[in-house]
Known about the structure:
There is one protein chain. The chain is of the alpha+beta class. Among the domains are: 100 residues, GMP Synthetase, Chain A, domain 3, CATH 3.30.300.30; 71 residues, Non-ribosomal Peptide Synthetase Peptidyl Carrier Protein, Chain A (Orthogonal Bundle), CATH 1.10.1200; 112 residues, no CATH class; 160 residues, Methylamine Dehydrogenase, Chain H (7 Propeller). Helix 3 crosses helix 4 and helix 19 packs antiparallel against helix 20. Helices cover 22% and strands 26% of the residues.
Amino acid sequence: MTRNDALNLKPQMxxxxxxxxxxxxxEFSAAxxxxxxxxxxxxxxxxxxLSPQLRSRTSITEDAxxxxxxxxxxxxxxxxxxxxxxxxxxxxxxxxxxxxxLPCDYNKPSRRIFGLYMxxxxxxxxxxxxxxxxxEAFLPLDPSWPKQRLLSVISSANVDLIIAxxxxxxxxxxxxxxxEACGGRVLWFSxxxxxxxxxxxxxxxxxxxxxxxxxxxxxxxxxxxxxKPKGVCGTEQGLLNRFLWMQELYPLFGDEVLLFKTGIxxxxxxxxxxxxxxxxxxxxxxxxxxxxxxxxxxVDFLQAYFVNRLTAVPSLMRAIxxxxxxxDDEQLPRSLDLLVLSGEVLPLSLWDKLSKMLPRTAILNLxxxxxxxxDCTYFDCKRLPLILAADRLTTVPIGMPIFxxxxxxxxxxxxxxxGEIYVAGVCNSSGYYSDSMVTPLDTxxxxxxxxxCSSVNGHKSxxxxxxxxxxxxxRSGDLVFLGRKDRTIKLNGQRIAxxxxxxxxxxxxxxxxxxxxxxxxxxELMLLVAFIILREGIPKxxxxxxxxxxxADKLPLAMIPGHIVVTESFPVSSSGKINYELLAxxxxxxxxxxxxxxDVGSSNLLQLVKTAFRDVLSVEEISDDDDFFTMGGxxxxxxxLSNNIxxxxxxxxxxxxxxxxxxxLLERKESLNINVSRDAKSKMNLEGGKPSFFHVHSDTPATVxxxxxxxxxxxxxxxxxxxxxxxxxxxxDSNINVAGDSSPANGYPWNSVAIYASCSFSRCNKVVYxxxxxxxxxxxxxxxxxxxxxxxxxxxxxxxxxxGLCVDASPIIVHKGQDIYLFIGSHSHKFMxxxxxxxxxxxxxxxxxxxxxxxxxxxxxxxxxxxCYRGKIYFLDFLNGNICWTFQTSGEVKSQPVIDxxxxxxxxxxxxxxxxxxxxxxxxxxxxxxxxxxxxxxxAIDEMNNILYVASTSGQMTAISIAVLQISRFIV
Length: 972
């Protein structure tokens, strides 16, 4: 059967498999025996993402990999052959079989449960295969889970032994707490120690000799509507059936490369690695933390390793759209044959974008849940145009059942083709596991009369699992997902029972009751909101500052509500139950701070400041004397607060309460009355012609009026009452004198020219003023210091600072009030802030790579931005150097970032040939543009015409229209 023939098979042509495929262990042994010296797993180091000039692939022998994989490895990658895997499986299996059992528990099933505490890795794969060969059950323990949730799951499952790695691949975690927390029942496992052992090629499957096979072989804990996580008892038959269906309909031939990137807390991860390992393919595993930090690197991994098949949730594909949209056709992952989407509803709009960007890639939409071994229906999107001609849809259908699965709809009396989805077949799990007890699934025995729609002809009378999901059947027979009527949702591919969040919050000692809802933002994105009733006498301001950190120790990140509302009561129905619909409506009636803070009112500056505090801290109430940092604020939140009210962030550290900050603002004369005046030796030019000069200084106000308060809180927006143009950059003009005698006073250079406004000086004498300055001139203003040519000016050394190694970058100098700071990095990985007057180091941070580019500073002067040789772009706190945010590119960053405050963006190039547009307020990449070569120089922005220019080492100059971020470009 050829590849094309297999892809054209119809479901009706597929027959059920017999005992030729009895278990996963037999499938793996056969694949390993046929591909002993072939690369099975690659631990990708991430160095493959560097530009081609620096790539250095490791040589692989002809028999070690198929043609597409011979050039697969890069420096830093670690590979394991099928011989390595099967040797490690044999070694670990022997050790597990020799492990003594725990004392007998009459309530516990005879099978043992082994917890696997490790990220996606070769160690994890070997651990799964070893437990299956032992005939026992495995329990994935996601290292990214909070510690308390891990301990709860371990206790609920009564785990016999935990298999863990001291140095897990691609994940920075501390496993040393495990032995003490689990009574010493931990087995440390490393592939490097096991891969070179003996191989038992004569291992014999015992399935035929065993009269009664185990009913389940793995536990997957999911969010439960009872308020506690519940373990689903998955079966080996269900996994094998899903694998064999995929292999028959969309086969792998052994020369493909697949990617294992899904977290082990999702059931989809099992097929992600089994489909490769059981067919003799090569499986590439990216570093877990790398993908978590930089989701866009997923596209680069697809390209670098010629990946042929990818499994993902739709929200992940939506997240990487900027990276896909910014690439030319030849730079898209052309090797990708099949994209498997599951775990969430697939919007029609997303399919349309993906199908246009990846026209060579087949897209498959799957539906299922942990209870049905991951998937039970499928839809091939190549049939979508025909279906859209007959039906109007907003989401892609979930299609038809996979073989050996029966899917029916049980509906009401009003609509004949809609109903709840019920599933039967080998895909169904054995039940739920908790506290050593297995309870059955929610199943019913159906007769033909009770079925309104069946996805197969003549369904059998058997027990069906009630999914809780609703669908309708199209004229083609395909199912379309409609939603649920209970309180279980899917968020980023993760099933979340809102009852579990409520139960967790109710466990807080200061909480009487809690109700959690979700609502959609902009049609697709969902936001969790928790309404909480506190015990009498509990200050809700203090509670609001601590509840999120309390929840972070007990719930996965995806389950922590983004907004907390403290209330006195909940709306109830006639039966006395919480009316969640009314509660959801109240979200839109809750007090929210609008973007235009000045519109709140100008009669009370204190109220404006308190409003800004509430907005940033996401609390309902705040008192005059509440401390910003004890309420949960940090340096990032302080940056947002200073952004919103337009003040120096240092004021928030010095005056952390609303009353103190308000008093400081009223007393700080220079903050409230910054005016532009003509210099004595220059004039304002309002008619055009030669660019004029202006100089910024502070007048001392006799009184403070609230119009100025409103203006203060609008500073960041770049608007003034007369809509004057704001000039953000100035450059030197040698024909203009700034301040008369520019010689040092008393021989000390800093006493000469006083600079009253905050500003920065960087390469090419580019000057940026904090927040911009008001100028009624359409031309860029210019300034200079004139030094008479006939005069000898002595040079003197003021101070020295040792940077460790070579300094390639130019410094950036920042004037802030009466202080002057210098920011510079070196090859020693050091980046520091130096007091330019005294030479004293204010703070120092060691980055991951050497610094070869100059830094930049945000327009509000709260953060310094700099890149490093390891491809990271750092956003550092101006005051202390703390990391506020990082963005990972795939090559060295030698280009100085450019601030685009009008669009709140940072533009920065990388050695990976891409130009990135980073939203520094929302901490995300909004655009990635391939430029054909490495980018060394800084981009340049023509703000008047909204054009950005960038050059690359390919000799290509690119002009980009940035008027709106539907970016078009012109190449020279």
